Amino acid sequence: MPSLLTAELVRLNARAASKQDAIVQASELLAAAGFIEPGYLESLQGREQVSNTYLGNGVAIPHGLQEDRHLIRRTGVAVLQLPEGVEWHDGERAHLVVAIAAQSDEHITLLQRLTRLIGDPQQLRTLVEARDPQILVDALNGAVAHTGPSVVDSTPADFEQRVELVLDYPHGLHARPASAWVATAKRYQAALRVRHGDTAADPKNLVSLLQLGASANAQLVLSAQGVDAGDALVALKRTIEALSAEEHERAAAARARRQKAQPVLWTPLDPADVFEGVSAGPGFSIGTVRVLRAAQLEIEDRPGNTVDATHQLDAALHSTANELEALTRDTAARLGAAEGEIFAAHRELLNDSALLEHAARLLLDGHGVAWAWHQAAEQQAARLAALPDPLLAARATDLRDVARRVLKHLGENVATPMRLDTPAILIAEDLTPSDTAMLDPAVTLGFCTVSGGPTSHTAILARTLGVPAAVACGASLLKIADGSEAVLDGTSGRLYVGVSAQDRERARQTQLHLLEQAERAAANRALPAVTLDGHVLEIGANITRPEQVRDALANGADGVGLMRTEFLFLERHDAPSEDEQYDTYRRMIEASGGRQLIIRTLDIGGDKQVPYLNLPHESNPFLGVRGVRLCLRRPDLFVPQLRALYRAAKEGPLWIMFPMVSTLDEARQAIALAETVRAELDAPKVPLGIMVETPSAAAFADHFAALVDFFSIGTNDLTQYVLAVDREHPELARMAESLHPAVLRMIKQTVDGARKHRKWVGVCGGLAGDPLGASILAGLGVDELSMSSRDIPAVKTRLRGSRLDALQALARRALDCEDVDAVRALDNAEIKAAA
């Protein structure tokens, strides 16, 4: 790694009046050296509002927000040596402030050195007292070896059997996929190792994996040795690659949530204190504030018999594991499988060998069992908090959550979270996932936290519970007096305190209006989407499995607008058989009960990869062999799927749709092969259609309409191809907005082409689930909108409150807009006019 720190960027014997002052001084050093634009100071300050950058033992690492990396000219580090210290977080004082401006991941090795320093008090003291800047430069650039415990003292050599791969996870390696790696690795006796650059990890150890700091597109080396080394290596590689599609799907869903406009539901007219954070759970509430002031956890060191202490720790770990297993089941049953996985990952943290070994060393040194466990867990949590990716750094909260459970089983009087007995808005520095999962929505009007982020496990659980929530509201939040009256707009992430009586009444009217809207939407979700002047739109649901049909219909779906078949091929070691596929499609028909059912054939490639298919690596997979291109090249995959579909068609109605069609010849080939299979099985004819996801398909819609029976527009892919923006790109993804007028014009061209041959047009991309997007699509003339089940009631309500001619006028205005902001402004204008 190149040296990141030079003597010119070290300020010895500095003084800072506050944390803010220290950050300003550090940013001035970075700016003067040409590393950052002046505006990066705001990013450094913004990070402090989102997460605590105090690493531990007097070391703080202020760094900016990921979205502001464009303000970094080149990667650099500046150090303030503060012998007197400055208060940084929760009474802790920082004596070394290491400010980081990193364009990518060049600084990860530096962070690993800093985590070693927190376990080496003697070395830290030397650096704080140094009078030669070169001493700090050498220590942080790696020229000086540390004597304290370290994460990795040296990089171990790879084992004899090895493979290389690129980590195709948009958010890098974090807890959920890492837990799956661990589960696979533990099935084998072989010793396994994952190496990322100069850092190696044991894939049977969750925290070890997280400390790799493996970001998106990281180059990994997997190696193994032992009796089943070959099988273990193959299985681990398959698991890693099989999770790629799921990670991309989760990332896309998160982006879609972020890209949706977050309207401000209400603002006071009279003066009030406003605490602005980030929305973690939409909704609106009014009520009394209850402030949870977390006491610093102090564990007394009570030495005892080492053997007895070991047994006590084993018993506490076992009890905690059972507790988390029960919580996993309970949360999955109440909130969903994905939410239950949060606590399954927590359970895996108990198996972290580095954590257990550290606690054992402290026990052998004569310390008490609870103190030893607490110290070991805190050090591991500090290492996680130091990771540059906020998604990974947030796992420190998870580890502390688990550690406190163990302490309770060791007999420590660990404070339990506040249990509300009367309705209130909860204020806290942070809430752990355990605290959040146990919140009672009946009395929890909402919550606000000082720190946290919208992608944390706490925020995920808040959204699932339906609790209005705002996170990253800043330290001043804790200055609110317990018992204050407040208004919480979780949708925009704002808390208002000290609201006048007149404004409180206005807030109650807003709350009543929103409640009536939600009740009407829920009560009327089974009603058809009929405009005020009688125009009917079909509403479909996007699903993957037969068991999801019931929920879709309960939410008001008229049928299934898109069944994705990829799930049949993912997270397994070989392709599903024809019989297995037939059984799934047959069950889907049964669940649909004769309603419309559109099944998309295998859509693999691009952001979805299946390792056992051995597809060649492509430098630009989104423009490569994917969708129908792959199916036509792999009849061993395509023909069994078509056979299964036509066999199922004998049991009930279904439509077949081919993805990623870009040329007329591709459509002709797919239709011809389908007809051959149908004739061989003597199956009924079914409608055959294509996904319109490419500009060529939209431009040639009139020609395609002469060949196929229907279109379904996939706005997610169509957007990225029309705008030439990779929707997985970390910097450009926010530009991939389907409301862009250029995308809307391609949709109109598709509808116009279909109408020349009186063909049906649906939309199954993310735009269909956005009430504004749905309104514009209806105005453009589409026949059907298919979306996530949870989006159906709001979309139906919007359409039922509109006239077709008004929707058509809205669509015409949107087509004439210059950009996305102008299109969204049309919606705001309509809302104000309606009010």
UniProtKB/TrEMBL annotation:
Keyword Cytoplasm on entry: yes
Subcellular location: Cytoplasm
Gene3D superfamilies: HPr-like, Mannitol-specific EII, Chain A, Phosphoenolpyruvate-binding domains, Phosphohistidine domain, PtsI, HPr-binding domain
The reaction(s) this protein catalyses: L-histidyl-[protein] + phosphoenolpyruvate = N(pros)-phospho-L-histidyl-[protein] + pyruvate
InterPro entries: HPr-like (IPR000032), HPr-like_sf (IPR035895), PEP-util_enz_mobile_dom (IPR008279), PEP-utilizing_PTS_enzyme (IPR050499), PEP_util_AS (IPR018274), PEP_util_C (IPR000121), PEP_util_CS (IPR023151), Phosphohistidine_dom_sf (IPR036637)
Magnesium in keyword set: yes
CDD domains assigned: PTS-HPr_like, PTS_IIA_fru
Family indicated by similarity: Belongs to the PEP-utilizing enzyme family.
Protein's UniProt name: phosphoenolpyruvate--protein phosphotransferase
Source organism: Paraburkholderia phenazinium
